[in-house]
Design a protein that fits this description.
- With 354 residues, the chain is of the alpha/beta class.
- The protein has two domains: 167 residues, 3-Layer(aba) Sandwich (Rossmann fold); 167 residues, 3-Layer(aba) Sandwich (Rossmann fold), CATH 3.40.50.
- 34% of the residues lie in helices and 20% in strands.
- The strands form three sheets. It has a seven-stranded parallel beta sheet with strand order 1-14-6-5-4-2-3, with helices on both faces.
- Helix 5 links the parallel strand 7 and strand 8.
- Helix 2 runs parallel beside helix 3 and helix 4 packs antiparallel against helix 9.
- It is globular and about 60 Å long.
Length: 354
């Protein structure tokens, strides 16, 4: 059984990440000459470090760690290895180990089988996995109470909908995405049990076209608020909402709202309405502070405090998950804040499976 511990991460400053995303390298780039650097590598899933979601947040945290410790991208500092799909993950983990990185991250539950194998074969390397539990002594498992932020997203959706129909689009079925679906549905039903919830999975975290098609179907079915927990597939949901909303006036009752996931996705909801007014359709974003967690764990590892064999869990109380206000009205946000206080106080119990 895993021993769960909680590490406060709110006090760690997150560096502001400007410019673009570093190009992927395999051990290249500028390097520090310090042989004692606590070097760190990130192995992505198929979404990549510019997915405006999970991987990008992890990479932002790693870059913040590098900046805080005067490290540069490369084998003597920090780096990432791009996986085009799950079949690349094991190879990339092994490449990172051969590159001499002292801590290697795997992003997402799909990395768990490969990390379990590679970690056992390399007991002197530190590993960390995000959104899964790998029980090896040299692996730290980082988990997030996504059901909590998703519950708040459900409250926001229930308060916002005018059609009394909302939607949930998931990437791939599994315990992690279950927490998003379960939390969202619980928040909706606790706010208004009469609201209809449409649910569909894309069976992919990278298929934007499928996300767009599913969103179009949900809009045709009456949904005017859609929560997408689907990684890169979610970009298609934003594209469909934008196409719909551009034909309408800003105050139209047929406006479609999208709820962001993992990172604050407000910028993805920017659009120009029919009357040439600038507006936004990102209602709120269920944020998972992967950046904070990666920065904190990397810092602890550099101080000989790597929590190998432990599961570290982040929730609302630890500021590991949150809901970004984005375009929520005062009435919607007031309901969200009231629910958040109850969750932190332990007055609301949220399911982790639908």
């Amino acid at each position: 059984m895993q021993r769960s511990v909680q590490i406060g991460i709110g006090v760690i400053a997150v560096a502001v990440i400007g410019g673009g995303i570093y190009a992927a390298t395999r051990g290249g780039g500028s390097q520090s000459s310090d042989k004692d650097n606590y070097t760190v590598a990130l192995v992505t899933d198929g979404g990549g470090v510019d997915d405006r979601s999970f991987n990008q947040s992890a990479w932002a945290g790693l870059k913040a760690y590098g900046k805080d410790n005067n490290l540069k991208q490369g084998t003597k500092g920090f780096n990432y290895f791009q996986s085009s799909d799950a079949s690349d993950i094991k190879t990339n983990l092994q490449t990172a180990v051969k590159g001499g990185y002292k801590l290697v991250y795997g992003v997402g539950f799909a990395a768990a089988p490969a990390m379990n194998t590679v970690a056992k074969a390399n007991p002197d390397t530190h590993f960390a996995i995000i959104d899964a539990v790998v029980p090896d002594k040299n692996v730290a498992s980082l988990m997030f109470k996504s059901e909590q932020s998703s519950y708040l997203a459900g409250v926001a959706a229930a308060k916002q909908t005018k059609s009394q129909t909302v939607g949930f689009i998931g990437g791939i079925h599994g315990d992690i995405i279950d927490t998003f679906e379960a939390g969202f549905k619980a928040g909706v039903k606790a706010t208004n049990p009469d609201i209809k919830i449409l649910t569909q999975y894309a069976d992919s975290f990278t298929d934007a076209a499928k996300g767009k098609t599913i969103a179009a179907s949900m809009v045709a079915g009456g949904a005017d608020v859609i929560f997408q927990a689907a990684g890169g597939t979610g970009t298609g949901v934003f594209a469909e909402a934008k196409a719909n909303n551009q034909k309408l006036t800003v105050d139209s009752d047929k406006k479609v709202w999208v709820i962001g996931v993992d990172m604050d996705q407000k910028q993805d909801g920017e659009y120009t309405a029919k009357n040439n007014e600038k507006s936004n359709f990102t209602l709120v974003s269920a944020v998972k502070r992967v950046d904070h967690a990666v920065e904190a764990l990397s810092t602890n590892g550099s101080k000989d405090k790597f929590p190998g064999g432990k599961t570290i869990t982040y929730g609302l109380k630890e500021k590991g998950v949150d809901l970004a206000k984005d375009s929520a009205s005062p009435a919607v946000w007031s309901a969200v804040q009231a629910a958040q206080k109850k969750i932190i106080a332990g007055d609301i119990k949220i399911p982790v499976h639908p």
